[in-house]
Write a structure and sequence with these properties.
By secondary structure, this protein is an alpha/beta fold. It contains ten helices and eleven strands. The mean pLDDT is 96.
């Protein structure tokens, strides 16, 4: 069993970003919008803040009350602010995320979740990719795991992870199955997976008897219990797999690094 070091992969991505920023003195500024009252959101926003500081990106965390129109007006304000080059909304939020992200200028959509960018993925244009799917692709590429012709099973059908990731995998000629809460027998699918990607937030969902020994497990799930963070993969399945991303220290750090890379791409696009 090989443990994939997400922190190492993220550091490599960050080093490349830092090099490009310093060489050309790029003035990149990201605003992260957080809804007040959610400790988990603030935790993630602070991790983003640390990553921005490491690469030389200015970062501002803006705390707002959970009111749809207030957040929309704030987004419009940052769209107009030329000093702000990237906007992201920290999940989870108790508001309509798709409506909010649709308000973000496509030139500042560092999460890749604007309908324009999601639509582009469907058409094969991967200029700006949603951060978690992008992180998963980067992890597989780093580990030299080719998805072409492979049985790829994704346990998540959200707009943020499962749907765009399925399109990205199809473009790379994988055979894709998507499972979710309404899938009748998830084990039928997981047992045939050569690459299993799970992102449910259900602690220990993937058991040892649900996977084969040659399976690569990408665990993008996260569940916090009593100050500890857990993934979707049970420890025995973890040991059985051919390769696995740990939680924490797997997909998470690469997701943040992917957001920073998106910020750099959009900055360069606007400042050509």
């Amino acid at each position: 069993m090989h443990i994939i070091d997400g922190r190492k992969i993220a550091r490599e991505i960050e080093e490349e970003i830092k090099k490009k920023i310093m060489e050309e003195d790029k003035k990149i500024k990201i605003v992260t919008i957080v809804i007040e009252g959610n400790e988990e959101s603030w935790l993630f926003a602070k991790l983003k803040d640390k990553a921005c500081k490491r690469v030389g990106i200015e970062h501002e965390i803006v705390g707002l009350e959970g009111n749809q129109s207030i957040v929309e007006k704030e987004i419009e304000k940052y769209n107009e602010d030329k000093s702000v080059t990237g906007i992201n909304i920290q999940l989870p939020i108790p508001l309509d995320f798709i409506k909010l992200v649709s308000k973000i200028s496509i030139n500042k959509d560092i999460e890749g979740m604007h309908p324009y960018n999601i639509g582009n993925i469907l058409l094969g244009n991967e200029e700006i990719i949603p951060c978690t799917p992008k992180a998963i692709l980067k992890i597989l590429e780093h580990e030299k795991i080719d998805v072409k012709g492979k049985e790829v099973v994704i346990i998540n059908h959200s707009n943020i992870i499962g749907k765009p990731l399925a399109m990205l995998m199809l473009k790379r000629n994988a055979t894709v199955s998507i499972c979710h809460v309404y899938t009748r027998d998830i084990t039928v699918h997981t047992k045939k997976a050569e690459i299993l990607i799970t992102a449910t937030g259900v602690k220990g969902l993937i058991k040892e008897d649900m996977i084969n020994e040659n399976c690569v497990l990408i665990d993008a799930g996260i569940k916090k219990e009593e100050r500890k963070v857990y993934g979707d993969v049970d420890k025995n399945a973890f040991k059985k797999a051919k390769a696995v991303t740990p939680v924490p220290g797997g997909v998470g750090p690469v997701t943040i690094a992917s957001m920073l890379e998106n910020a750099l791409i959009l900055y360069e696009k606007v400042h050509k």
